[in-house]
Aminopeptidase N
Amino acid sequence: MRDAAPNTIHLKDYTPFGYLVDEVRLTFDLAPDATRVTSRIAFRPNPETTDRRFFLHGEELRLLRAAIDGAEIAPEITDEGLTCSVPDAPFVWEAEVEIAPAANTALEGLYLSNGMYCTQCEAEGFRKITYYPDRPDVMSTFTVRINGTHPVLLSNGNPVDSGEGFAEWHDPWPKPAYLFALVAGDLVAHSDTFTTVSGREVDLNLWVRPGDEGKCAFGMEALKKSMRWDEEVYGREYDLDVFNIVAVDDFNMGAMENKGLNIFNSAAVLASPETSTDDNFERIEAIIAHEYFHNWTGNRITCRDWFQLCLKEGLTVFRDAQFTSDLRSAPVKRIRDVIDLRARQFPEDQGPLSHPVRPESFQEINNFYTATVYEKGAEVIGMLKRLVGDAAYAEALDLYFARHDGQACTIEDWLKVFEDVTGRDLSQFKRWYSQAGTPRLTVEEAWQDGTFTLTLSQETPATPGQPDKLPQVIPVAVGLLNPNGDEVRATEVLELTQARQSFSFDGLAARPVASVLRDFSAPVVLDHDLSPEQRAFLLAHDTDPFNRWEAGRALAGQCLLDMITEDAAPDTAYLDGLTAVLRDDGLDPAYRALMLGLPSQSELAATLHQRGLIPDPQAIWEATETLRQTTAQHMQDLLPRLRAESQIEAPFRPDADQAGKRALGSAALALLSRLDSGTQAAADYACADNMTLQLSALSCLLKAGKGEVELAAFYDQWRGDRLVIDKWFGLQVALAAPEQAAETARRLSAHAEFNWRNPNRFRAVFGALAMHHAGFHHASGAAYQLLADWLIRLDPVNPQTTARMCSAYQTWRRYDDDRQLLIGAQLDRILAQPNLSRDTTEMLTRIRGS
Ligand SMILES: [Zn+2]
């Protein structure tokens, strides 16, 4: 068990390790209950420091033997590692430990999933494999021998030797231990090759369980596209003879970028038209790209310490977003990313879990794999690129790769390459890495004698541990439109550096309409007081696709808030504007489908809270339902046309073009089902030949209170396919009426197929419950209690997934006293559990606050 009072680790306390590692040799003798790991590690004193304390991390290990330069020693062992005295000269450390992969349910270190051995070492899992300086700034080459009976034995790097019952691998690129990986299993490969720009032939393998071979082709294509794209756009070439990807069913995260041996949650790599939706395909393509891109941004250049996690994650998320934008539609990708940012990062940044993109302290690093580090981290890179321009960005990246290849770096190193290339002082910009919270950007307009003035002001609210904020550098992309809808000033980037600053545009014939924060040029909350008429004008005319969408979104949001707070009827300015956009078949179907979306109910709750009101989840749910119903009626005549436009004769392709049409067709079907009680959806379900259409028709039926027969048939059809059955579980919770959501989740959690130890299955039910705003926050408190019951059960088995799920409660202070009492009681109940993990304790303590 973890310490009762865990230590907090601070960025400011960083010191380098006293020794460098020249070489690591590992031998694994695999056995489920007693795997033996033999290590032989060449250390030498680190000339960068005089600190010669020798501490090796190690947890849950049984040390059988340790020796220095061949002489056996008896180190001093604690729960966290060992110490011993060592020579002040190069020496060889040897150790033999025993570990029990079969008993490892936390899915960190070496564990078993369906009889297959696999590893997850980021962030601090390697210390559960053997004694080692398990910190990212200690880098070494690794040679690994695996002795085991499984037909496939894999590790990082290139294959060196193999035979009956063994395989040997060598990774020539120095890496930190968190990138170590090992896989042993009865697996089959979907293989291909890739020839790099310099002519190196690389063997590519996607390893899966027998039976999943048919779900590999898309992932393999995505990998090859990623490899080509990184050569063409970033000049980065792959550097080993082989690139392996393995699909694993039991996995806490999406995927892991281990050098040359990426390990994927099977949900993040396996795909087929029959079993995967268009959204699944797009996500899989992006995750494969993301992990591949880490080969340079993360592996070749890694992080000095875990506080610098955003150095690899923010940059790599930014790179995978660029990749998706290039392959698919840039505006659609941007809109989807902003929807995601507002759904996941904003609540984090506006609540008790708020932390800077580069945190300054943590107790459990696993709790900082957050939307702030990843998604806001990527937004920060996007702002930097916008400020310095594309050419300087490319030059700075070239310098970054040239200067830091093979190093473990910091945010300071990263910003320095931009300063060196551009001559800019980025010290104020750096506040994006150190200040938490979402800045609020307020826009005021003035018009006089042909001069239009925008006054921008910024304010970042206090966040835990950071009461006072300084102004940040905010790039605000602005364009101006003439009253006739023409663009009178093309997009330019205003640099807001002060708390309040004015920018003037002169020589204008008429007062323009300002389109502010185009392309969502900064991750801020925009407060621009436009009239419904002005928003409707931007919805009709804005030349920036993001802001055109945003105008519709803001209109919908205002309409819903008026319905909630003033019992107003749905605004026809919104409905008419929306209908006009949907009618325009010159616009991308995917874009029009996004136009039909509404602000999420959680987002509406946040807005009400920011305005000093107490959100009522049930009232928000009802307003949303009413607006959808009214929209359906308003568009009655248009819906059949939208459906006709979305029909596809060609064979299924998961590309942006077809996916966009299906998205528009599904959105139209959802509205139509509100008018015909699901008649069309039932017909569509009967002839659906891909998962996107099947799931969309089933959703419409369930939403209409029908579909019982189809739901049962769906289960029977897919009962052998775990990823589809995850959808079956999730869908029922997501579409339950608010008063039934908790009961639905409870009923499903008693289902024979509810394997709660599998993170995907657990999240399918309880992730869906947490996302069901009105259901989770139903006044009965049933969902609060049910989730707490399950978190208490899961914590001893899998602390990492438990801790992550705790964020369901993070917005609790927004709601009324009764709900706060109910949630507070559940938080206290979980916190009172004996032996609660360090992960969960830290999360709940932060959420609970004082
Ligand atoms: Zn990553």
